[in-house]
Write a structure and sequence with these properties.
By secondary structure, the protein is α+β, with helices and mostly antiparallel strands. The chain contains 24 helices and 13 strands.
């Protein structure tokens, strides 16, 4: 592929020049990059692309020969940045960039260490916008709104066009300031075998057994019926399963639940991008955005009936309808299983997997390159109400820490803007299929490619996407609180505790951290101020979250024809 060849050439040039410690900014390198790597796949004209590259060359002059280090998690988009875009940026600007790729949990750990020690470990981080509540409260990340207007004005790309980014709301604090700049986004959606769902025999058999049409499940009741229907059937000579998930007690198990699983079940309050006053973590805040509780006794919903129902269903489906080995898998280990062709549907599926799901010769891809599968909105649980968020959207975003020296922060900011620039973003999006710009999503090249991407483009062009959002500002310390989830829910997954016992333990652990933050006072007047505990029945009797237990947690199942769903998105 062209980008691999360019990467090798650019790396060789960078290494050769670094040996003499004299890397020079180079428009010739920029023109080579535009011709060989971008190849016209940009929302900008050729002249506009060259103008952006010239701006980077000029802005980088004070930092030529500076060596900087940035870090991100390992996904296709960031691999492309590390192996192709970083060497290109070095060749073009003279700023030597090392873009490290490590696990998501390791990124958070490095960031937490830098926050606690003040040591400059990395010059910039691509970390999830899930940390927006942390960055806003601790004020250890540079506020990008003020940075771009002040200290960083001389290194802020005039054509950056912040309003073109679709995830800016996710990275803006309650103070209206931007703390992170999105680099990649992907949603957690429903995935299913479109070919199997449209098979006439399957449709007839399902209708005969359940009394309604096989289609995209709107609610968990229908998802469960479909999972039961497909599990154990033989299709194309192999045994298939109606569900896929993972269950190993591992840090990645925490994401499985903090990434909006509770809100998909109906826990929390209405509101976009996150429920208020109670969010999808079950944390309640007051009118000043101060956390006041996590357990039902303080007005939270982490251990409420809807949350417990969400854990019970997760465990039930994992045991009954997924391959036996799924219970011992991590997130990464489970990701490629649907590609093998024996999974009928998956409730909790990230669109970041799309790039690996469209490869030629896969059992789930037709000979003409079109997918046998589709993606659709996630079904919702029994407690869900219209107006609640329906799923999670990851927004890996550039973050500059105040502990980073200004010259290094400026150089890193230049690199960050390079990899999200309008010159680069369209090609990067075609490589990793993680979207951050409206101009990229609407480009004709994605209209042309849409039939081979299983609904991804239709979703991102639809108004439905606003119901998918990252963790919001209710979470005051993401690194401290996130680690509690996999440890406690892992006890339920392994059978050591009941779902209720696990969620009781989780909310108590969260409140312990919140209380400690309150006593420390380190987050000022936006830190936690805990409610007094009362009889949980008092809160359950009030409107909104936490909601009282339903008499019937399996309402009437509902499905919709996929093709009709797509029409509603495009109208």
């Amino acid at each position: 592929m062209q980008h691999r060849q360019f990467a090798k050439t650019a790396i060789a040039v960078a290494i050769m020049m670094s040996a003499t410690h004299a890397v020079q900014a180079d428009m010739a390198a920029a023109e080579s990059f535009l011709a060989d790597e971008i190849g016209g796949l940009s929302v900008l004209s050729e002249d506009e692309q060259k103008a952006e590259m010239q701006w980077f060359i000029d802005a980088a002059k004070p930092f030529t020969d500076l060596e900087i280090k940035v870090v991100s998690e390992t996904i296709d988009t960031h691999t492309y940045e590390s192996t192709v875009l970083a060497p290109a940026f070095t060749a073009i600007t003279g700023i030597k960039v090392t873009h490290d790729l490590i696990g998501e949990g390791d990124v958070v750990e490095k960031l937490q260490t830098q926050m606690q020690s003040g040591e400059n470990i990395y010059d910039a981080y691509i970390n999830d916008s899930d940390l927006i509540g942390t960055h806003w409260r601790y004020q250890q990340a540079r506020n990008l709104t003020d940075w771009m207007a002040g200290e960083g004005a001389d290194v802020t790309l005039p054509t950056l066009d912040v309003d073109d980014f679709i995830g800016i709301e996710f990275t803006t604090g309650p103070d209206g300031k931007l703390y992170q700049l999105p680099d990649q986004q992907f949603a957690n959606l429903y995935w299913f075998r479109y070919d199997w769902f449209n098979d006439e025999k399957n449709k007839a058999d399902f209708k005969a057994e359940y009394g309604y049409d096989l289609g995209v499940p709107v609610n968990w009741s229908a998802y469960e019926d479909i999972a039961k229907f497909f599990t154990g059937r033989e299709i194309d000579g192999q045994k298939v399963y109606g569900h896929m998930d993972y269950g190993k007690k591992d840090p990645s198990l925490g994401w499985r639940f903090t990434d909006a699983w509770l809100s998909m079940a109906g826990s929390g309050d209405k509101g976009e991008p996150n429920g208020l006053p109670v969010d999808e973590w079950g944390i309640r805040v007051n009118e000043n955005s101060q956390p006041v509780g996590s357990c039902v006794a303080r007005g939270g919903d982490t251990n409420g009936p809807a949350a417990v129902y969400s854990i019970a269903k997760y465990i039930e489906w994992l045991k009954a309808y997924a391959p036996a080995e799924a219970a011992g898998m991590t997130f990464g280990e489970s990701a490629g299983v649907p590609q093998q062709g024996n999974i009928a549907q998956q409730m909790f599926w990230y669109t970041a997997f799309t790039a690996g799901m469209v490869a030629e010769d896969l059992p789930v891809v037709n000979e003409d390159g079109t997918p046998k599968w589709r993606m659709a909105p996630s079904p919702h649980g029994a407690y869900w109400e219209e107006g609640q968020k329906l799923g999670y959207q990851d927004a890996g975003s550039w973050t500059l820490m105040k502990s980073t020296p200004t010259d290094r922060a400026k150089a890193a900011w230049l690199y960050a803007q390079f990899v999200v620039s309008k010159t680069v973003d369209l090609k990067k999006a075609h490589t990793g299929l993680t979207f951050i710009r409206e101009s990229t999503i609407q480009d004709q090249s994605f209209t042309d490619r849409a039939p081979k991407l299983g609904g991804l483009i239709e979703f991102y062009r639809s108004p439905a996407r606003v119901q998918w959002s990252p963790t919001g500002t209710n979470v005051p310390d993401y690194p401290k609180l996130a680690q509690l989830w996999w440890q406690n829910i892992g006890d339920a997954s392994s059978g050591e505790k009941t779902p209720q016992e696990a969620m009781d333990a989780l909310c108590a652990a969260q409140e312990k951290v919140l209380s400690r933050l309150e006593r420390a006072g380190i987050q000022g007047d936006i830190g936690p101020v805990m409610n007094e505990e009362v009889d949980p029945a008092e809160w359950l009797a009030k409107p909104g979250a936490p909601k009282a237990k339903l008499d019937n947690e399996k309402p009437a199942p509902e499905t919709v024809a996929y093709d009709e769903l797509i029409k509603s998105w495009t109208q």
